[in-house]
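Phage integrase family protein structure dump, as promised
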Amino acid sequence: MQRPSPRVWAEDPRTGKRRDLTREEDNAFWAWAAVEVLRMTGIRIEELTEFSHHSLVQYRMPASGELVPLLSVAPSKTDEERLLVIAPELADVLSAVICRIRTPDGSVPLAIAYDQYEKTWNPPMPLLFQHRVGLETRPIPISGIRTLITKAFTTAGITGTDGRPLDFVPHDFRRLFATEAIMYGIAPAENSIHVGQATCEYS
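structure tokens r here:
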């Protein structure tokens, strides 16, 4: 007896082709999560793929004792760790990501990512950008993030003022972040403070 598929399929009435709605929903979620995190933090794409559950930290303000949620960004092009203050909107996105990848016991699965720059496999980490591929939990690589974003914009049919499709790449959100910061009167060099040996930036 053939076991039913855990995936949801549907037939497109326009083309008659079967569509894997489970995969389409998964792709849409991760495209949304990537775009939201990139635009609200201004981080680089390689930094996004390195985010893990350990990247979520807290800092207690000395004067008030208030706990400030922070997102730790591992060094990439610089030798200095950065700590981003997590705004409520960003907290909602990160919460959705963690809820999605958690196992029934509440833990975040460990995933092994390949470092394309060092050409080595990293140790197992509770990476945030991971998803199920068949029976395995795999991290979403840099190329995968780029593909998800490109496909999302193409499928949505978003165009520019000239009517041509918009071609967004992950680094464009870094530029948008900097532009918005300047529009709100925050110079790039003014939106950070130092916490210990790390730089704390406001997003």
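The helical segments are 21-41, 45-49, 88-101, 142-156, 170-183.
lmk if u need the other ones
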